[in-house]
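Q: Two folds, back to back.
A: First:
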Amino acid sequence: MREKNYKLLFAGRVFLGLVFVCSGFIKLMEPIENFRGAMTAYDVIPSVVIPVLAQVIPWAEFVFGFFLVAGYLPRISAGVLAGLSWSFVLLILITKTMTGSLPKDCGCFGEGSFLHLKPLQVVFLDVFNTLIGIKLALTKNHPFSLASILK
């Protein structure tokens, strides 16, 4: 693989990982009720699963984001994060279709974050993250990673 491709893969891995590390960390530092409220505002997620999702999603974002930045299990981590990103895109599209509107704040980076994205910005970011995640999940060799050191 050419050096330019290695640099792009590394940059994509770090970008995607950091987006999710930040997102998960901010949610973990806030009261869980904030994230539950953000999920409830979508009006399409069954209320029975919201408490479980509010517990699991921030940890999955943080752990797999950290793994991706470090390059530990990069293909699995990228696949999980691509799946999360795509599920967020679907959530926004389904909510818009079923309710005709979207919540004011997506809840992506928690309530106390300096970063508050509009729904269209979230869709673009998550589509971009999905594409990066798929590319990383399909790539066998990850340069500058813990996985390459442990081989």
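A: Second:
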Amino acid sequence: MRKTWAQLGAAVLGLALVGAACGGSEDKASETGAAAATAGQLVGMKGTTPLVKLSDDFKKKLSDAWVKAGNQPLKDYNYGAEAYDAVVVIALAAEKAKTDGIDYAKEINGITRGGEKCKDFTSCKAIIAKGGDPDYDGISGPLEFSGNCEPTKASFGVLQFGKDNRLDDTKTVYKEASAPAAADVPQVPVEGTRAGDGTLKLGTIFPQAGSLAFLGPPEFAGFDLAIADINAAGGVLGKPVVGIKGDSGDATTDTVNQTTDRLLAEKVDAIIIGASSGVSLKVIDKITGAGVVQFSPANTSKTLSTYKDKGLYCRTAPSDVVQGAVLGAIVVGDGHKNVAIINRNDSYGVGLTEDLTKAITEAGGKVVITKTYDEKADKFNAEVNEIKAQKPDAVVIIGFEESSKILSTMVEAGVGPTKIAVYGVDGNMGNALGESFDAGK
């Protein structure tokens, strides 16, 4: 199994201490030189991720939930609110349907629109108790699900790296966006007959290791915090909600199938899964085929918008149709007309590239080159050299953990963020990117 970011950090620290204990002055000098060489190389890099301006109170609660589970305080909050809202929406739908069986899926979309506004589980549950129809506006935004169980409205955080190669929160700005009108489709019928047992049981499949491991901590924390809040308010169907955690790995492993089999064997009523769309697509037929809701706080591939999912796949993250439009407007709005894109060769990378290209073109810019790379590759010299040859005034990297290696190659080629405008996306914009870049990984 690949190591988590925390484990990698501990390993690096351990090696540094061993070198110091052995009097390894050359190693220490080398490490110091490497740190100096990378210091500030990411400064100015911008990127988008679905994000609202989270309150300090919520961020503290989220981090406290992660610490309570035996971890260090959170460094990133990406998709923590979306994970929290996914749990609350499922819980409210089960309460409204009066069952944890498959029929609660028929209530999910309605929980987010068309009724009496409410901001938390307690107030929404009170509306249901009176025979009313709640319209949950959650921590992550207004939600407003379409008939295919995904939000038609979203808030994006435009993040920026500072001189320490970490995100500078003082420079974060927020932009609201809506999906095209055509995205608001009719209700997708729910297919299946799975019965409930009266106890809402939720499983998670979040990344504990692999290329999106930095997204795991806030997602797990959001899951834990939501269950704690719901149970403090009396639970669902008169009983506490039960949570079971599992690892998704990434698209290079089969971890997600193993975790899915375990959770289905434990008869969960929903599986909350993230962060990679490619990972979700590996198991969507298995989960929905079992009559279980598959709900993601972080999947953004537009492939999932029209997937034949029996009306059982939902997400609180907006489709990349929206992210592409937002990021494209930002790139061109910053004054860049000739843009290069380098992207992963998967449903996420290819799909977001399509929508980003369209947005840049419609805003008056031009994509001068698109380089699609193998996500398993270790070197990106050829792709970066081809991009450099086109002399773009901005480069967009659509990737995951490997974005660190791409950036290192760009810096060596003289087209890093301090030389040319560089933009990222939700798959790579996090402090973990800066940590990995500094460590040369």
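Q: And?
A: The first helix runs from residue 5 to 21.
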